[in-house]
Specification:
The complex is a heterodimer of chains A (418) and B (142). By secondary structure, chain A is α/β, with parallel strands linked by helices. Chain A folds into three domains: 188 residues, FAD/NAD(P)-binding domain (3-Layer(bba) Sandwich); 133 residues, FAD/NAD(P)-binding domain (3-Layer(bba) Sandwich), CATH 3.50.50; 83 residues, Immunoglobulin-like (Sandwich). Chain A is built from ten helices and 29 strands. Chain B folds into two domains: 40 residues, no CATH class; 93 residues, CPE0013-like (CPE0013-like fold, Roll). Chain B has two helices and ten strands, in the order βββαββββαβββ. Chain B is an alpha+beta fold and 142 residues long. The termini of chain B are far apart. In chain B, β1 and β2 form a beta hairpin. In chain B, the strands form three sheets. In chain B, strands 8-5-6-10-9 form a five-stranded mixed sheet. The chains are: A alpha/beta (418), B alpha+beta (142). Chains A and B meet through β4, α3, α5 and α7 of A and β5, β6 and α2 of B.
Chain lengths: 418, 142
């Protein structure tokens, strides 16, 4: 068994930023384990631009954003081991991993950062009826085929789900010569960023069908047709509204799930609302010395936020290794009206400025975010526009936190009077 | 007044642009004013795509010996030690180009090949499709 001070599971944007932050806090023995053949994670296939506006004040493509972090890591003694799959994580922080070069190995870690990212939901996860023909891909799988392997997955395409990856792929497939017939969204609003609706659908006159879903898939060997129906307020298909599209490809962009098999094996408590570990403000899980950041913790819209969050986890892991523990009792965060989750889910009373990330349940205009200590409002933030597809964040300064009397803070959305 | 959504950043401000004076309201930052006016005058976009990497071959065409396959990146005669055999090089236009020229730019991108070594920012196509934009690499290929 080998030993390392800090082991980071995953060499994507979260893992790279976390490792760098820990390095800057004087942790000198850091190992990143990456299952792909290169670092950079999903950014390697996200060749479009729009990354890094917050972080670098410029628009970078995915590979460029990843490249900046990889270059910084190269200037340190942080080790990145690629082609290495972690199979198990134990409660005493022993990792079991396999790789073609090393075979099986066990690694004991002083601290662990979980940065495994997320996976796409598949056809099985949303139970689309119909034939089991070829030509049905998750949007991210198609993106990898096209952008990294160089395979075009189809010529006439329907996209189910208006998440960002689906929208990005609508444009990408169109630019490469495919005909994208429609983007179909179950909800009455898009799950993607507004700018992607504009740049990826409107620019190419691709229709977006809100409150619609795929109700049948037809095809003998390869996909031949998909049937799209309108849905009612309960998301049930309305008979008589069927539209038939002749197509050879269906791309699914129907949500992402944090990939927490390792966290579950280690018995780490998972928040059913985020599908990620339940964490403190320093991104420490309920298993001491194990931290989580990036999309394994909750699905982010912007990699810039992933980097920022991961740095917090890296700094916290370094503090843990140096024997510094957060002080103060627990204050829990409760989701009030209109809030579907918060990260972190709880924090220490002595915390410095608390930055809260959360998602709202609906589209709101001219609404406000309220933070309540019992019945007393301690903060209120106005927002002109909020949507479930756009992660919100608020900062609660220490002076405010010092005034909190109870053990519970509620975050809720106050709708504008009609 | 034309209503458009600003795409300069993920915030997506709802802009109102005057069709005659190109005055913009509803923007949260100065970039929105520039975007709003340009979007009506002459809309521009950055195009991103990939370029075929010369000699990368296909995974099935690569020699398959225990020490050589694309998954491990191990040293072997067909590639430098530690190198990852990428089959596509991601590229972008280094500035936004007129929206109407996107498909022309794509056609030119699909005609070129990239030969490693390549560094981020290397120009693959200068003045693509007669614009003032260049197609540049967005990834290092050793």
């Amino acid at each position: 068994m080998t030993e390392h001070e800090l082991v980071v599971i995953g060499g994507g944007p979260a893992g790279l930023a976390a490792a760098l932050a820990a390095w800057e806090q004087d942790v000198r023995d850091i190992l990143i384990l990456e299952r792909d053949n290169q670092a950079g994670g999903i950014l390697n296939q996200c060749i479009h631009n729009g990354f890094g506006l917050h972080r670098f004040q410029e628009e970078l493509t995915g590979p460029e954003y990843a490249g900046r972090f990889i270059d910084l890591v190269k200037q340190t003694d942080i080790q990145i081991r690629t082609d290495t799959m972690v199979l198990d994580l134990t409660r005493d922080r022993v990792l079991h991993a396999v790789s073609p070069r090393q075979g099986y190995e066990a690694i004991r870690a002083g601290a662990v950062i979980l940065a495994m990212g997320c996976r796409e939901r598949t056809r099985g996860a949303i139970s689309i009826p119909g034939a089991r023909c070829s030509g049905i891909f998750t949007a991210g799988a198609a993106q990898r085929f096209l952008n990294m392997e160089g395979y075009m997955v189809g010529k006439r395409v329907v996209i189910l789900g208006s998440g960002d990856i689906g929208l990005i792929m609508a444009r990408r497939m169109t630019l490469e010569g495919a005909k994208v017939l429609a983007c179909v969204e179950l909800m009455p609003y898009s799950g993607g960023l507004t700018r992607n609706i504009v740049q990826c659908l409107n620019d190419f006159d691709i229709p977006l069908y809100l409150s619609h879903t795929v109700t049948d898939i037809r095809g003998k060997n390869r996909l031949e047709q998909v049937v799209v129906s309108q849905v009612d307020g309960n998301r049930s298909p309305i008979p008589g509204t069927e539209m038939v599209f002749d197509c050879d490809t269906l791309l699914l962009s129907v949500g992402l799930l944090p990939e927490n098999e390792l966290s579950r094996q280690a018995g780490i408590e998972i928040d059913p609302r985020t599908n990620g570990p339940l964490v403190w403000e320093n991104r420490e899980t309920d298993l001491p010395g194990v931290f989580a950041c990036g999309n394994v913790l909750h699905v982010h819209d912007l990699v810039d936020y992933v980097s920022a969050e991961s740095e917090q986890a890296g700094i916290a892991a370094a503090a843990y290794l140096h024997g510094n523990r957060p002080a103060g009792g627990e204050i829990r965060l409760v989701n009030g009206t209109g809030v579907s989750y918060t990260v972190p889910q709880h924090f220490h009373r002595e915390a410095e400025t608390l930055e809260l990330f959360f998602r709202v349940r609906n589209i709101y205009r001219n609404a406000a975010i309220r933070v309540l200590d019992g019945d007393a409002q301690i903060a209120r933030f106005k927002r002109e526009h909020m949507a479930p597809g756009e992660m919100e964040n608020i900062k609660l300064p220490k002076v405010l936190l010092d005034r909190v009397r109870g053990n519970v803070l509620t975050v809720e959305i106050e709708e504008a009077p009609v | 007044m034309k209503e458009i959504i600003c795409i300069t950043c993920p915030k997506g401000c709802h802009l109102k642009v005057d069709e005659e004076t190109f005055a913009v309201t509803g923007n949260a930052c100065p970039r929105g004013a520039v975007y709003g006016a340009n979007e009506l005058r002459s809309p521009v976009r950055v195009v991103t795509s990939t370029v075929i990497v010369e000699d990368a071959g296909t995974s099935s065409a690569r020699p398959q010996t225990p020490d050589c396959d694309s998954r491990t990146g191990n040293a072997c005669p067909c590639k430098p030690a530690g190198a990852v055999l990428a089959r596509r090089l991601p590229v972008k236009t280094d500035r936004p180009i007129p929206k109407g020229k996107m498909f022309e730019v794509m056609a030119e991108i699909n005609r070129v090949r990239a030969t490693p070594p390549i560094k981020v920012g290397d120009v693959l196509i200068p003045h693509v499709a007669g614009t003032d934009g260049n197609v540049v690499a967005t990834k290092n290929l050793p």
